[in-house]
Structure prediction request, 936 residues.
Amino acid sequence: MSHDQFDAQGRLQHLLTLADLPRPTLLGLLDRAQQFHTQPGAAVPEYDLLAGATVVNLFFEASTRTRASFELAARRLGAQVLTLDMAFSSTNKGESLLDTLYTLESMNADLFVTRHQEPGVPETLAQHSRPFVHIINAGEAHVSHPTQGLLDALTIRQHKKNFEKLSVAIVGDIRHSRVTRSAVQALTVLGTQDIRFAGPAELLPDDLEGEKFTNMDKAIEGTDVIMMLRIQKERMQAGLIPDEREYSRRYGLNVTRLKLAKPDVLVMHPGPMNRGVEITSEVADGPHSVIREQVTNGVAVRMAVMATLMGK
Amino acid sequence: MSHDQFDAQGRLQHLLTLADLPRPTLLGLLDRAQQFHTQPGAAVPEYDLLAGATVVNLFFEASTRTRASFELAARRLGAQVLTLDMAFSSTNKGESLLDTLYTLESMNADLFVTRHQEPGVPETLAQHSRPFVHIINAGEAHVSHPTQGLLDALTIRQHKKNFEKLSVAIVGDIRHSRVTRSAVQALTVLGTQDIRFAGPAELLPDDLEGEKFTNMDKAIEGTDVIMMLRIQKERMQAGLIPDEREYSRRYGLNVTRLKLAKPDVLVMHPGPMNRGVEITSEVADGPHSVIREQVTNGVAVRMAVMATLMGK
Amino acid sequence: MSHDQFDAQGRLQHLLTLADLPRPTLLGLLDRAQQFHTQPGAAVPEYDLLAGATVVNLFFEASTRTRASFELAARRLGAQVLTLDMAFSSTNKGESLLDTLYTLESMNADLFVTRHQEPGVPETLAQHSRPFVHIINAGEAHVSHPTQGLLDALTIRQHKKNFEKLSVAIVGDIRHSRVTRSAVQALTVLGTQDIRFAGPAELLPDDLEGEKFTNMDKAIEGTDVIMMLRIQKERMQAGLIPDEREYSRRYGLNVTRLKLAKPDVLVMHPGPMNRGVEITSEVADGPHSVIREQVTNGVAVRMAVMATLMGK
Prediction:
């Protein structure tokens, strides 16, 4: 599947998944992102790498923060950005996904950023788009969220020297988590071998390799990185997992539990957080947390991906 | 009515309708649009003709594609674009149409692009706006959609040498079609005499000259251009026309039927299409189709209209 | 409370309220706004004072015109603008107000424009934001709407020489009016002493100094400025005030009533107007009305506030 992302000359044309992404390609994206990284409060450079280009945000699933991140990334590169809230608008008239693509590429759109609750949409768009068009997967069902995986990898790299020796625990609703799948793919390419999953048995995955724990304490023991996942409250209502209080007691990250990990452990969360449920505010805002750095890196990674795909 | 569009010096101030538009004015707009035309995949030039200008999209009727086309056209000319989704927002507080106009022109808006399901709105805005303001009709009830008429004319001109000798068939819900009315006006100015309408009897118009057919096969026989219209499924539910299957059988364009037209016939559709209802995918994506070219020309035409109205 | 607005060097960091704003600061903002003022129809200069800056519109309460005014102000200064309609979007996932702030400032947002139906939100954001971030209150419950107060003051200053000797009547739902509170604060700083309030007894305020009238005629007698407020029809439905007809008879501004004021009285309204209820069209569009000038000044004032906060 992943070679669909490359054009005939072997250049990255789309970013659909991190699975099997060659290590030099992935490292190249991280290096580029590091160059685009701007510390909050510092002056944001204005680039013209994408001047004249049109970036379309085609979001079928609502997302304020991811949309904002892509929109700022594109604009800071000098692109025109068109944001279409597909959850409401075009489907009114029942235009098909592909006709929306054909219409917008006929308006000289160059790059589509898409998010959809169903699997396969980014790949479908990539298969049917004209040769000059680029697709970025900004969240695909439970399957893939590659720019999230890249920003997670970049954030870890800014703090840890060596991916090979890392122990990483991912905690929460692993089964439904595109964040997890993309993080695992990135870490695997970068050489990390010790990736552990923790969560209620019903939410552990069938399709992922790595040690699985229903006991969070055991999973995070001695880890360098803990990635907490957002728990969907709808899953509680469906009775799949315990209520908030019980969930928090068993799978929430708090200061006491954090001591089980290495002293220099990094705490990550893709946001938005349910404070007091999967993570306490003391941890989220504490010295181990790199959660806000992830957000800053998100913009940088998206700039790197856009510039790379557009050959700039 | 149409002389409302011109200012005291005879310059086009608004674009409300194509009815009675002088032939040189219409040809001038097409020539200008041709200059702005950019092949998909080619680099889009960035103009500064509208630098400092503010374009307001005042859409009372939802439209992803038309709004996107106008937004890109304005931005590629260097304008600031403000998009107001009037279907939801301002009417919350019950501000009248004219007060919305007065407010936005007091904020130095220069050009309003408006779409409304009721007739008369663009003209009302033009009558009450200050002398420095320009109004573009982006879709008015069943009455008028002048930029669509222009893009249809431009698309035909790119393929056919002579409008006078053309045979054009328009098929579908003619009665409720602003697309048809603007296309007929444009073609009439350009000298086309043989314009035929086909559709269920209930959907044929009272107010348009031209031969009318309830038999589509007869209508398209020997034509140079077939313009298919989008059928509103609501009209089926209302029982005004047959169901999808029957409609498709009688008024859908398929490969077999297409052979009745001239060998170099152009197939057009304003979009969004109901594939498999008024048109088969084989035809929509086939060699006669210029449907995607229409979309590309739409941006060019809107750039031409904006630049012309603003005196640039 | 108001000293929260200033940083350690005494520079205005946020604009949360006009209460106790030092007179030189307020006059400086008005002078700056006068420089940014552009007559409708004149060419709008494009500034690059905010080039590279990111302005986020964080509107929890819908508002087409105020959002448009801030958006145009920011863009005309060269900023990137990100508009988040918080009434619909992010709260979907239940992200807290502060996490939204932390996320967006981590994306290098510099300036937040916020509007909320609950009191305290702008101050909360100011207290928790990083040192490089600026907050502008664009409407806070019934409490404060400082840019409205500034634009009202600027509009009066363009017509009247002296604030000290002015008589100003404010008419309508004073109790729930943030517009009134900010106008009174601005006028008080500028030295106006004669500020009168008129409205139904239930809608007169407890917390504002100034003479109160239930008889509008007495209130506006001999005034230099009449500020009419928008009446919320919901209050009528709640039975708090008379119906439209009766309200209009007792508290509506018409031509007859206007003669009670000074011959050069200014008529103001923050918009959107209920024409025929709190004000007749004859007055709203008549020679005393400066209502459209208020809108033009609104953009200028917001440009001045943004440039000043950003230290430009």
About this structure: Residues 2-144+295-309 of chain C form a domain with the Rossmann fold fold (CATH 3.40.50.1370). Strands of chain C lie at 54-59, 80-85, 111-116, 134-140, 167-171, 194-198, 211-213, 225-228, 266-268. Residues 60 and 116 of chain C are 5 Å apart (CA to CA). Chain C has a mean pLDDT of 94.
